[in-house]
Each structure stands twice: as structure tokens, then as C-alpha cells.
């Protein structure tokens, strides 16, 4: 599933209002994350969209939503590594961006699966609750896809909606 960036600036208020409506009527966490996925698709596009909750006390991350359940199922946990990714996303609470598969391989042991989905760039947007990292919204696409303009759109227009989605889903922290 490849989703292209098709949102114009005029569409943005309507898309944000649509997200709010979808969050109000969502009956499951999956409904909530699909609503955020839809906004992300129109805003910047992706080939793979996932949401991971973070359990810092136990150094674990858990995939709670995915656009590709066959390749990235919603199940299990993976250990968090205290590396450059962790410093950026947890310590600085900024998005982690890698725009080549070589850069992705430096921090993600599943880089071959990422490559198999024809993805070579990633943005991990931190969801911060009460001043601490609670989750990440993860967008992946072709190499060099997430340039400065798309990163700006993600930070500016997905940060608060991701937090609202996290709250609406009742995700554990």
C-alpha cells in the first residue's frame, strides 16, 4: 500500500476536523489509529505506518497498530536499545529521521524487513505524555522521501493529533 502526499493547505482544516470526528466515534483503538493513519496518508504519505507504545520501566516497545499486519504484526515486544535513536526520541523528544536503508540499519535490526517493503526512509514521531515518551508514530517510505518539508509537516500537523489519538485509544503508559 503506497500512499502519496495529496493534501493541500486548504484541505488541512477539513482533514483535522475529520480526524476529530473519527476520534469521537471510534469504538476500538484500531479505529483511532486508522484515523491517524488516514491523516498521515493525506499529509505526507507513507508505505508503512505503525504505532509503538513505550514501556521505559522495562525497556520494551510494543507494536500496537500497523498498516502491514502480515509483515509487522501487532504482538509481542522488542527491547529498547540505548543508542542514538533513543537519545533523539526519548532524551530530546524530537523525531528520529533516517533517509537511507544504511542509516536505518544502524538503529533497527529489522532493516531487511523494512527493505523488503521497499522502504528506505523513516520518521519516528515521539508521543509525549506528562513530559515523557509514551509512544512513537512511525512512517516509512522510499529512500530520501522524508525531506525537510515533509518533516516540518509531520512535526507541525501530526504531533498534537498523535497525542489526541493516544488519549482516545486509551493506550497504556
Task: Explain the overall architecture.
This protein starts with 11 loop residues before the first helix and ends with a helix. Strand 1 and strand 2 form a beta hairpin. The chain has 173 residues and is an alpha+beta fold. The protein is globular and about 40 Å long. The chain has one domain: 2-Layer Sandwich (Beta-Lactamase), CATH 3.30.450.40. The protein has a six-stranded antiparallel sheet with strand order 3-2-1-6-5-4. The chain contains six helices and six strands; from the N terminus they run H-H-E-E-E-H-E-H-H-E-E-H.
Short description:
The chain has helices at residues 12-25, 29-43, 84-91, 101-107, 111-116, 148-169, and strands spanning 48-55, 60-66, 77-79, 96-98, 121-129, 132-141. With 173 residues, it is of the alpha+beta class.
Strand order of the largest sheet: 3-2-1-6-5-4
Our Rg estimate from Cα atoms comes to 15 Å
CATH fold descriptor? Beta-Lactamase
CATH class: Alpha Beta
Q: Indicate the structural class.
A: alpha+beta
Main beta sheet: 6 strands, antiparallel
According to CATH, the homologous superfamily is GAF domain
Mean pLDDT across all residues, rounded? 91
Q: In the residues, how many domains can be counted? A: 1
Give the strand content.
15-25%
Catalogue the unreliable spans.
none
Distance between the termini: 30 Å
User: What overall geometry do the principal axes of the alpha carbons give?
Assistant: globular
Name the helicity range.
40-55%
Order of helices and strands: HHEEEHEHHEEH
